[in-house]
Amino acid sequence: MEVFVNDRFVPEAEAVVPYNDLAVTRGYGVFDFFRMVDGRPIFFADHMHRLQHSAAQLHLQVPYSADAIYEIVLELWKRQPMPTCGIRITVTGGVSSDSYTIGTPNLIVSQMPLKPLLPDDELPAVKVNTYQWIREMAHVKSLNYMTGVWLQPVLQKEALFDALYHDSNGVVSEFPRSNVFAVIQHGKLITPARHILQGITRKYVLELAARQMPVEVRDVTLQELLTASEVFQTNTSRRITPVVSIDGRPIGSGKPGPVAISIYKNMLEKELITG
Amino acid sequence: MEVFVNDRFVPEAEAVVPYNDLAVTRGYGVFDFFRMVDGRPIFFADHMHRLQHSAAQLHLQVPYSADAIYEIVLELWKRQPMPTCGIRITVTGGVSSDSYTIGTPNLIVSQMPLKPLLPDDELPAVKVNTYQWIREMAHVKSLNYMTGVWLQPVLQKEALFDALYHDSNGVVSEFPRSNVFAVIQHGKLITPARHILQGITRKYVLELAARQMPVEVRDVTLQELLTASEVFQTNTSRRITPVVSIDGRPIGSGKPGPVAISIYKNMLEKELITG
Hints:
Two copies of one chain form a homodimer. By secondary structure, chain A is of the alpha+beta class. Helix content of chain A is about 30%, strand content about 30%. Chain A is built from seven helices and 17 strands. Chain A has helices at about 20-25, 45-55, 65-80, 145-155, 200-210, 220-225, 260-275, and strands at about 1-5, 10, 15-20, 30-35, 40, 85-90, 105-115, 125-130, 160-165, 170, 180-185, 190, 215, 220, 230-235, 240-245, 250. In chain A, the strands form three sheets. In chain A, strands 8, 9, 11, 12, 13, 15, 16 and 17 form an eight-stranded mixed beta sheet that branches. Chain A has a six-stranded antiparallel beta sheet with strand order 2-1-7-6-4-5. Chain A has a two-stranded antiparallel sheet with strand order 10-14. In chain A, strand 4 and strand 5 form a beta hairpin. In chain A, helix 5 packs across helix 7. The longest helix of chain A has 16 residues, at about 260-275. Chain A is globular. Chains A and B meet through strand 3, helix 1, strand 6, strand 7 and helix 4 of A and strand 3, helix 1, strand 6, strand 7 and helix 4 of B.
């Protein structure tokens, strides 16, 4: 496996970050992650736009233009073609002599195999718990996933798939790596407006859903999720993941619901035609 | 400059972390930092105890005992003796195949020159602003200093030295890298009890101060600081740093106060006799 680091492709074992880069010393940096199908980056422009936004928010500069990154990504794929893979672009805070002042970012473009998206009749149904937490600068796709990673062993002990973040007032925001949607009375689709990362899948789900049902982007309470007919996650790796249990309480029918399946089908079609 | 990485001393240019270590991908890991004077690690046992605590809190294991780390630190110092230096021990989340599950930690022991502590009549007097923020798992010395680093360019624009964190109720907690103390009416010394890192300097300041004045560890409000006769920071690098302005409002006499100077003197003596 090769990895692109700053200005060259190197074997994976040589893809490293200096010990005194702010990414290592302070968890400071940003990234983005997208899928690539048959050599085609999916929603590439959206991901590059978000990467630029995240970097600017953290006073960092992405060292290449989106076009230049596109060429790097294609070259990486040509060197190691995979039917479906994920590409991660990491921009670090850079080496810092005092371990605190922002330096010159290091750029890493790495590739990992992904399973193809499941057919819609094989969508999984997952169980989650809630956890009171609001991510630090949630609108920035930063390197900081401390609470998300920390929760992993805790969730695994209870065979839970994920943790749904909410604030002290019971207003939900997102999962550590996914946005959340719910279908409530009168077939309305709702999703939180605040304290979230602006997911690319979320964006397209909102667009596709608006063609077939009323959609609201606003504060969403835990109580609304518990009485929803459907709840689902959206993210880049799996697109849509139906949630059928929250804190041990069943959601909807206990199976992937019709709205999740319908939007998922539309997403699969959308990916075929969008570059 | 040499750095110890996992099991050997390497030249600084080879002191690196894999691109897919959770420290780089998720800002996940812990560290500690102590001073070394004439080859003697200061408050070493305290720092190792805290490192073990931080690691355990993040489901990580420090790969060596405190005794073994002591030997590594001494060997590092012998290879590059410095009158005063800082030693940083970093324990990363380790390489993670799925970029999320905790791996086997990488250990880095690095050294950097430090200026000797100033004589007490040269203590600086610094100006700070407040910032509403509570650190994520503040009791853990994790790698996550995202907000602290992010604030740096913001503070520098206004020639401010640091930012004092407080919650939405005006209860102060700490600075990004320092604890906070205040001297209030009747010569009482107060310092926040919650949402803080248990500073090693804080611990000794509490111990030394208790010999000469009433001390309270409890919730402290911004209002109390603004009317205090003295406010000061404590941390490992500088020990005690008097604060003479908060949000542009003068604190105390505008100069380092007698309590800060007295405790600082006692700290300097304490360091001479403590290993």
